[in-house]
Amino acid sequence: MGRHGFVSDGYERAIAGIEAEVRPEIEARYADEWNAAGIFRRRVLRRQIEKEVDRAIEARSDQAPPDGMY
């Protein structure tokens, strides 16, 4: 943190924080299907999970503008 209280990578930290909140929720929804899936189905599920995580991050990041001061 600088002298003025700003964090140089604040936006990236905000996005990482959002991801840390949404990823476990989304992965938990797919846990049973993941455990029963084979290798190919897990690859498909991984892509689907990543898309959902990206959408959730995008939806929540509207509250944290990239040009904001952190």
Low-confidence stretches: none
Roughly what fraction of the amino acids lie in strands? under 5%
Structural class: mainly alpha
Total helical elements: 3
Rg result: 16 Å
Instruction: Give a short account of the largest sheet.
Output: none
How many runs of DSSP E, i.e. beta strands?
0
Helix content: over 70%
Question: What integer is the average pLDDT?
Answer: 85
**Ends distance:** 10 Å
H-E string: HHH
Shape: elongated
In short:
The chain has 70 residues and is an all-alpha fold. It has helices at 10-29, 31-36, 39-61.
Secondary structure topology:
Elements: H1 10-29, H2 31-36, H3 39-61
Helix pairs in contact: 1-3
What does this structure look like?
This protein starts with 9 loop residues before the first helix and ends in a 9-residue tail after the last helix. The chain is elongated and about 45 Å long. It contains 3 helices and no strands. The chain is mainly alpha-helical. The protein has a domain at 17-63. 0% of the residues are buried. The chain has helices spanning 10-29, 31-36, 39-61. The mean pLDDT is 85.
Descriptive terms for the model:
70 residues, mainly alpha, elongated
